[in-house]
Amino acid sequence: MNGMFSLNGLGGFLIAVVLLLAVVFALGYKAVSTQKAQSLNPYVIENANSLQMKDKNNATNYKEVK
Description:
This is DUF4006 family protein. Pfam families: DUF4006. The protein has 66 residues and is mainly alpha-helical. It has one domain. The protein has one helix spanning 10-38; strands at 43-45, 62-64.
């Protein structure tokens, strides 16, 4: 009973590798699909000289071009 659900050895290694590769491919696919979707939404930064390093009001200078 103690070793019934253990994933030691080559089987556990293969499961871990497959799981990690699945996560990498899923996140890569999500990144590419997000980039494709946002490439069709250009934006302009108005008053670029008034931007501060850390300021919540910087979001007001971000405008989507329509």
